[in-house]
Amino acid sequence: MTKEQANSSPVNYWLNNKWRWLRTQWQSFRHPVGSVDFGNLRRVTPISREFGYDRGLPIDRYYVDKFLTTYADDIRGRVLEIGDDSYTRQFGGDRVTTRDVLHVKGNNPIATYVGDLTNADHIPSDTFDCFILTQTLHLVYDYRLALQTIYRILKPGGVLLATFPGISHICNDEWAEYWCWSFTSLSSKQLFAEFFPKENVQIQTHGNVLAAIAFLQGLSVQELSPKELDFGDRQYEVLITVRAMKPED
Ligand SMILES: C[S@@+](CC[C@H](N)C(=O)[O-])C[C@H]1O[C@@H](n2cnc3c(N)ncnc32)[C@H](O)[C@@H]1O
Fold first, then answer.
1. Could you tell me the distance, in angstroms and rounded to a whole number, from the CA of residue 53 to the centre of ligand 1?
2. Mean pLDDT calculated for residue range 136-154
């Protein structure tokens, strides 16, 4: 009998249901309804609406930093970043030969390209060794067109490093009117496989229930311990990170 057959047998189905029921009973015994102490969190408005910037480092940025640290070696050669070049400088160091910046509006003095990723014929094909696309994909209504452009402008062998929200509130700055989406690891996996060979795509999720609540309340990294931040729970995807490589010719 294969593992799949064993898991789908009626006995296993019954055992799984029983186990789920027992777990639920245990949870309501440990935390009876009405006994939860909400403390400072019993409020219908958040502690802060600034994503944690007013209290320290935002929790999603902790995960962005971890992801870029892991894949820092990919940040090399000619690098395109969205909005500014701070991650290129911080993580690319002297591996980077050219820093480019793409901004959707014409008001950014450090932008070397101005344009919308869904309509960017002016950005040359097969050009970038690395594209750092942090906290942007959810702002693009037609994200498939954006990914088509990204794939086109990466060099063969070039790498996209992308991060975007899973569980998040919506910002209250100039990007609020652009904010369209949240993703899951599954939707990301299927989406990126439409453009990149699936063996070239690595998807990770970051977060847990405490990190999610703290993030939604606008608390900062400084208010949780590294152990609390690093605990990963697949049911609480605060941030999704993707490394995707365009195949060599
Ligand atoms: C919140 S910033 C994210 C990038 C920034 N480096 C960061 O990590 O916070 C939002 C960025 O999304 C970009 N953006 C929004 N819609 C876009 C689009 N359709 N095409 C290209 N960029 C877009 C803007 O240019 C802006 O720099």
1. 18
2. 98
